[in-house]
Amino acid sequence: MEQLYTRWGRELESDHVLQEYPRPLLRRGNYVNLNGYWEYAFTKKFQRPERYDGRILVPFSPESVLSGVGRQLKPDEYLWYRRFLPVEQEQLQKGFRMLLHFGAVDQACRVYVNGKEAAKHTGGYLPFSADITQYCCKKDSDTENETKAASESRSGETDGKGVELVVAVRDLSDTSYHARGKQKLKRGGMFYTAQSGIWQTVFAEYVPPVFIEKLVSEPDLNAGAVRIRVNAKKDIPVRICVKEPALYHRQEPCGKSAQYRETEPYQENVPSQDIPEHDKKNDTYIGNNNINDIGVIAEKEGLANHEIEIPLPIVRPWTCETPYLYFYTVKMGEDEAESYFALRTFSIEKDRRGIPRICLNGQVQFQNGVLDQGYWPDGLYTAPSDEAFIFDILEMKKLGFNMLRKHIKIEPQRFYYHCDRLGMVVWQDMVNGGTHYKHWFVTYAATLISRKRFRMRDICLPLLSRTHKAGRYEFVREMKETIALLKGHPCIAAWVIFNEGWGQFQAEEMTRIARSCDPGRLIDQASGWFDQNGGDMQSIHHYFFSLQFAPEKERVTVLSEFGGYSLRVPGHSAYKKLYGYGIHKDVKSLNAAFYERMQRIGGNIPDGLCASVYTQLSDVEEEVNGIFTCDREVRKIDRLPDLPDSKEMLHCKADAGNADPAAEPHNDRSASGFDQFDDVSI
To answer: What digits encode the pLDDT tens for the residues 251-290?
Structure first.
């Protein structure tokens, strides 16, 4: 194996790792970024180590080269982290609370503050938080010196500042039913190096005794309004100010790393001196105590925990070409936060021939997508910088794609923020779990079954590796958490519940649950195989046979995976083995095959094809079928052919006034005996 690096990984500064505010939909000005070096140790027993093995660069998993460790956490081991968190006792004495946030820790962890358990969490792809105030106050930190002395005796090194944070991690990877995506301990082919530990940003912030816990916005394009709910522990007065919708420009690649960087936002018809202050470092409007009313187009007062409807005097829909975002500020007592929303609808409407089509704001949109697995050769699951995210998004837009299917992975929220502001549609996969898959069944047999257009029920749990009841309940809980976490991002058009039968079960019931969580988005119930005739999509995978489909009356027809043409680029491929769905020896033959296949896709649009997803954005380990190499240094595909103009060709009758996917039947029959899933709450 040859270790590859991205340009962003080579230039990484350990003192400035992913410093951007990690939660764009609820942003405060006062926070402490805890990325950087922590101490680490591996142990065989669940027992705090006497001494630590060295330093690990958070938030990179220990399996990645950027972490500085390069060692896999085994299922029978524990990984320990330690660092010190500076605490402002004056803030705590004023009654402020300290919240500790983890973007994601793979798979299960316990968090200790000054030797006391403060939180525990299972789920390697989802964030969690803990109020650690009681462990940081003077009354509980009288033993701080003793704790530090003990720590020094174990590690020989400490900065001696603040309270001690210790995180214990265990990762069973693919030896259990927990969600794991495409991670595998014995990697190879389409399954990749298993990673573990802290892999998204860790941060802390001070909040008042009663603080804004969550902001939920429900934009209504048809009404030209937005409904906002401020979640808090008490029903106290809030004041909301909505600013004029803004677009974001970008600069061309610059500097030795050719990184994409944002310029300031602009607002049409507003003098330059009236543009709100912009934080260049953190990529958005500043959320601090000096927010003024410049650029405010609407404001309203109300109560926390109650829906507040705000009419908008300026209505500018979000599109891929003009991704307008409305930023707003919320003032509640001593707390203040910022968020944003966009006016847009995704729906299914019938063209004049009666063929159902995907519409954005009531206008037909062929969603021309690419599979995005979010792997990096130096950071594995963790992108080395925000610029790496931006590069991927913009390069796909430059080629002519308008959609990314985020494949069996949940990214940090900043990824979706960049898709929001840059105008990239996202299909979001749920992360699959289950025990060892019966590959003969979910791959070869499933391919033949789908070819014969035979619909097989997904109730045989042993064949689909879903025999553990606890695993099924966990999937429901994490699906609901995923939707709750990401539904505020305007870029997301569809939820993809299952992929190719990997851990699939009762897809009809899962569709009903997902619809109840978010009625305003499309649902791909089963991408690839084992279609249960539900959801909003007839979802086809096309790698081996000629493409055949017949449009349905209610569901749209989508090609949710196809292509996968492989080409190894010397010096930019880490492994000797290669995997793909058609191997090419040179760029010319690869581009000829890709161009011909895309032309065929375009030729199917008049017959009812509504979306396509090419496999894939970049190479991943042995799977060298990317448009880019894994290190993003070489683009293997030159261009896309021009696709038919669906708006001109289809003459869709839809308009923005009937964009409600929940208004039509969706074949979501409730599965008798599974109503208990409704009791799984977040």
So the answer is: 333 333 333 333 333 233 322 223 233 333 333 332 333 3
Which of 489, 502, 500, 369 minimizes the C-alpha distance to 434?
502
Residue 2, in any domain of the structure: no
Residue that terminates a domain, selected from 165, 181, 207: 207
Q: Is the pTM of this model over 0.90?
A: no
> What pLDDT score was predicted for residue 393?
97
The Cα–Cα gap between 533 and 440 comes to 23
pLDDT at 654: 44
Number of alpha helices (DSSP H) and beta strands (DSSP E) in the chain: 12, 36
Domain encompassing residue 532: 346-679
In terms of domains, do 138 and 157 share one? Answer: yes
The CATH number covering residue 68 comes to 2.60.120.260
Strand order in the sheet with 116-122: 54-58, 36-43, 78-85, 163-170, 108-113, 116-122
User: Which residues on neighbouring strands pair with residue 215, listed in sequence order?
Assistant: 230
- Alpha carbons 427 and 417: distance in angstroms, whole number: 14
The C-alpha angle 312, 314, 320, rounded to 5 degrees, equals 110
| Residues 69 and 162 reside in one and the same domain | yes
Residue stretches of the chain with pLDDT short of 70 = 138-161, 249-294, 444, 446, 449-454, 645-682
d(CA 210, CA 226): 24
Residues 139, 280 within the same domain: no
The answer for residues whose C-beta is within 8 angstroms of residue 30's C-beta and 6 or more apart is: 205, 206, 288
Residue 122 and residue 127: Cα distance in Å, rounded?
10
Sheet holding 363-364, edge to edge: 346-350, 356-360, 363-364
Query: How many beta carbons lie within 10 A of that of residue 57, not counting itself?
Result: 20
Residues 241 and 337 in one domain: yes
User: Could you report the per-residue pLDDT of 354-384, keeping only the tens digit for each?
Assistant: 999 999 999 999 999 999 999 999 999 999 9
| Res 454: pLDDT | 65
